[in-house]
Amino acid sequence: MATDDRAGSGRRRGSSPGPRTGADLGRRRRISRRRFLAGAAAAPAGLWLSKAVPAAAATGRSYGPDSACDLPHDVLVRIWRGWRADRSGRIVLVPHGLDYLAGGGLVTHSTPWGYTQHVPMCWYGPGIKPVGIVNRPVTSADIAPTMARLLGFSDFRAPDGRDMAEVALRGGASKPKLIVVAVWDGGGRNVLDLWPDDWPNLRGLVTRGAWYEHATVGSNPSNTAPVHATIGTGAFPRTHGCVDILIRFPDGRIGDPYSRGPDQAILVPALAERYLAAVGEDAVVAEFGTVPWHVGMVGRGSTTGPQPVAVCKKLGANETTAPTWGLPRVIAKHYRFPEYVNDLPRLDDPRAPYFRYADRIDGTIDGKWRGHVIRNQLGGFHTPARIPFQERAVEEVIRREELGTHRETDLLFLNFKLIDEVGHLYYADSPEMSDSVRAQDRCLARFVAFLNNNLGSEWVLLVTSDHGHTTRPKVGGSYPLDQARLRSLVASRFDRDEDGVPLIRRIRPPWMDIDMEELRENHVMVSDLTRFISRLSRADIGRPGGAP
């Protein structure tokens, strides 16, 4: 497979012509403002999400249960799939247009709207029939049942997903010895469309495999924890329970879903769980990512039977020390950590090539990346140096675990998170993002060559993402709405009993959780809150000056 090693200029470039060949997939689509100016600012979730989804939706602005009917149908379905009465916030927040709720100066991508929902979905392998572009809609929940069919594993039934039947083996091809799912975290279609010339290697797979043009995450919010659990289980958050990067536990506390272990984060078994329990030592299941949210792809692991391999990052002593690999204590007993990955050269080892890679990729060899001191970016981890560093460790896992050589098909789940980190730090339209997409695409070419050299023709690869990302307001029209300002306005208007108990327990981009007892003590109804919130404007809760 050919690689594209051109240095980036940091400018968005026009896409190549050639419809139906995959070359046109990078053309930047215009996002109509009118399409997004629909929906309600807030709705009391429990009053309408427990009911059937309306067959159609109108446009407008309203509040309360009726606001559900003001949302486009696909948006409403995503919200319904992502909400649980026992784990989600009690009020669903849906900012208008491309606006988003942000806290602490962070850029968010947690929305039910298409620009963060649309993701690449590209299946490829030497034994896969080349069907090219498939125009029917699919979601992330359809990945697990498709894998189950390729495995020939009939003991798994996805709760919500459906098989992508177009992904089929060529006539005479044997069952794959290894199936790989590679998630470009944050690399949704809106990001790829911004940088159409930076992913030639992924585009080159389109006509050689199966590319689903209308693939979406399928549920709200579009963020890492719930979507990776969806990929693993074939279920949406409404079913698997990992509804956000924060959930409400049975005791009422709000926290990271994995903070009490993976068995508390995910409520249904993943494909990998059932498969590993069935085949035992005849196959290996492995996950390589950076944070616990990524292990949702392999499920809850095990403390009694065969364990999947799992890798996360382990932070260094400070912001200039590169992370190593490890597993957080709270999930460590459920998975098997391959200690040997830390025997490889460190990211910040001056003898290793990683810092030099980040230095070169912006087209200027000056010891920096886009003007950033590489070591100061979490020891280089928040630069393109991270991608070949992780790729090298992934290859080591494949070798040492002998993936692709066992009696039954091995499974490997990968998360590459740099694109997402860069989106949070610099926005999707930044030159840093261009470099990150290009670095990830080059890594893809290397990985495909590695699989070909080591496994021949008996492997299958899926490249997908878990969400898109946000551009600067002057580029895409998005506008950050300040969570702290929203909290302050609601508190000053409704929390007047001066008892020191906050009315709002937590605000997240997709929801607000309120203390129902405090609401009653203030003689306030949920509809009062939602009516008030729905009438707020950018002038009321917009971040001063918008965003850079």
Can I get a quick summary?
With 548 residues, this protein is of the alpha/beta class. It is built from 21 helices and 19 strands.
Structure overview:
This protein is α/β, with parallel strands linked by helices and 548 residues long. It folds into 2 domains: 34-108 and 479-541, no CATH class; 118-317 and 384-469, 3-Layer(aba) Sandwich (Alkaline Phosphatase, subunit A), CATH 3.40.720.10. 30% of the residues lie in helices and 15% in strands. It has helices at residues 33-36, 45-48, 73-82, 114-117, 143-151, 189-194, 200-203, 224-233, 237-240, 262-265, 271-279, 329-332, 354-360, 386-400, 418-426, 431-455, 473-476, 483-494, 516-521, 526-534, 538-541; strands at 42-44, 91-93, 100-102, 121-124, 132-139, 178-184, 210-216, 247-248, 254-255, 285-288, 309-314, 324-326, 368-369, 372-373, 410-416, 459-464, 480-482, 504-508, 511-514. A 9-stranded mixed sheet has the order 5-7-4-16-6-15-10-11-12. Strand 13 and strand 14 form a beta hairpin. Helix 14 (386-400) packs parallel to helix 16 and helix 15 (418-426) packs antiparallel against helix 16 (431-455). The chain is globular. The two termini are 39 Å apart.
Top keywords for this entry?
Alkaline Phosphatase, subunit A; 2 domains; disordered N terminus; 548 residues; 21 helices; single chain; alpha/beta; nine-stranded mixed beta sheet
C-alpha geometry? globular
Number of domains: 2
Q: List the total number of helices.
A: 21
Mean of the pLDDT scores? Answer: 88
The CATH class assignment of the largest domain is Alpha Beta
Structural class: alpha/beta
| End-to-end Cα distance | 39 Å
Compute the number of strand runs.
19
Instruction: State the fourth-level CATH superfamily of the largest domain.
Output: Alkaline Phosphatase, subunit A
User: Radius of gyration in whole Å, from Cα?
Assistant: 23 Å
Give the low-confidence spans.
1-24, 26-41, 45-60
Enter the CATH topology name of the largest domain.
Alkaline Phosphatase, subunit A
Q: Hey, roughly how much beta strand do the residues contain? A: 5-15%
